[in-house]
Design brief:
By secondary structure, the protein is mainly α. The protein has one domain (17-79). The chain has helices at residues 17-46, 51-80. α1 (17-46) runs antiparallel to α2. The two termini are 34 Å apart.
Length: 81
């Protein structure tokens, strides 16, 4: 009977610590980008940005909040290892 191979190779039941840290960063980055999109849009519209300036401001806010939240989530996942 063939042995089922999981996503982390044969014989490994759990992901490595580095895989967990990467996954924590990706999850945190996604959540931070969503939050940055909401807060960035409202703050940029509130100060009167329009058009290309609005897109640049929202994109910058999304990247900043995504990177920040992703970093803290990856640190938290690293501590759990």
């Amino acid at each position: 009977m063939p042995v089922a191979v999981g996503p982390y190779g044969q014989g490994q039941g759990q992901p490595s610590c580095f895989d967990r840290v990467k996954m924590g960063f990706m999850m945190g980055f996604a959540v931070g980008m969503a939050a940055g999109a909401m807060f960035g849009t409202f703050s940029c519209l509130r100060i009167g940005m329009r058009g290309r300036e609005l897109m640049g401001g929202v994109g910058k806010t999304m990247m900043q909040s995504g990177g920040t939240f992703g970093t803290f989530m990856s640190i938290g996942m690293g501590i759990r290892c």
